[in-house]
Amino acid sequence: MHSAHESMPSKYINLSLAIIILFIALIFRVPSLSEKPMHGDEAVNAIKYSRLLESGKFEYDPAEYHGPTLYYFTLPVSWINGNNNLKELNESVLRIVPVIFGIGLIFLFFLLKPDLGWSIPLIAALFIAISPAFIYYSRYYIHEMLLVFFCYLFIIAGYRYLQNRKTGWLITSALSLGLFISTKETWIIIGFALIVSLFIVVIFRERKEKWTVFLKSTPKKHTVGFLVFTILPIIVLYSAFFTFFEGLQNVFSAFSVYLDRAGHSEIHDHPWYMYFKWLLFFNPEGGSFRSEGIIAIFALIGMYSIIKKQRGDTNHTFLQLMVTFVLVTILIFAIIPYKTPWNFLTFWYGSIFLGAVGCNYIMKQININSVQQIFRLVFVIILIHLGWQGYQLSFKQSYDTNNPYVYAHPGADVVKIANRLEQLAMHHELGYQLHIEVIARNSDYWPLPWYLRHFDKVGWWKKIGIQMETAPIVILQPELVDSLIHKLYEIPPPGQRYLYIPLFDEYTELRPGKELQGYIRKDLWDVLYQLDTPVRNSQ
Length: 539
What we know:
Distance between the termini: 60 Å
Radius of gyration: 26 Å
Oligomer: single chain
């Protein structure tokens, strides 16, 4: 491995390369953030965040929502943009938050430069900048970018503290651990994997006596300080700055909720190899083969180079921990039936680092100049191919089912639904006071609450309310249409029945395979019918 004193290109060349990588990362992450339809999870997070934005209060609910860090880190962006409520928010304002943390992930490993040199951090940063998975989910308003960021900042800052015992690294590591716990309940699984990995490295790969001496020599004030700065963000954020102490109790109840969900979720149950399929060999029928497998190959080489080395200094211990943590995390997530593609980001980030180690190892093993040139050419081709995939998946196929990272994602129809209702509101005297009912079993209507956020009178229901007055606009699942017809035309006496006609001229989906139907009262339809608008012509 490189050391801090290895022969490397000049500092200014390396800084220039880092700036170029930053520029590449921004190109892949920032443009057109509002173009992709909002995922249901993004919409849930947006609505949850809007309550914090409007009221200043956050009430943690482990049953249906996640931790508070995503929402609190969104506040400064909203303030800068002048957003004060849900109606003023937009996709770009929300999605720029994971973009920021995604950029942070690119440069996190530069914190290791004093010990590993420039090469490995630069290669890792370049791989992360153009990784199709990290590009895609950096543009997603979900918790994963923050979860991965704080997880690895905790690990790296802790390692730096072991190197120099500086309190700055101790505080950084502790705060990161607290924010990691405050981000998403998956921390329970990842934290367990990290504890197991530490145990394996200390017991089987290092002398236990050395770690006993280290622990005994650690100042008690450092131990206390670590605990204080870990607990501090947990208490502050989960209690909503000491206004909702029930949130702290719910932190512990999250254990049972998410452990149960991990083992019993038919909707998201997948075979053990599913993460590998998404990442390494996704070949849909009628679509193009997608893979980040070359990074996995480099990672295996990196693991080999670390495992075969017997040197037991702190640098090598850290690298052993990374290998063990990645393998243990992969094993645990593969065993758990519950799988969604963004869950692999934690072990894939570590794999990318190991891929950089492997790539650096290969370059050091090649002594023949012509072979070095061939490897550099192949490396450039690999980078171009990964970047091309990243562009295709995040911009051209951002909600296409042939995209391995698209999971239960709505298509363009949700935007068409919103545009159709917006157009009607613009030309009707009631405007956004129009009464709309959205009815779906199991509340399966997300992300429509986001798209109908400008309307003030929207009812969200799980079944047809027989005793309730029917709204002039009804959007519902097709299996509920018979109940709606019964309510509209069989229950009311003659002379008290309103005529409803289809709102959509063609098959309309909430997301692939999930149809929605819409019905509008005849008097409102007459207003819509008279509008000669692009929205109507597109239906």
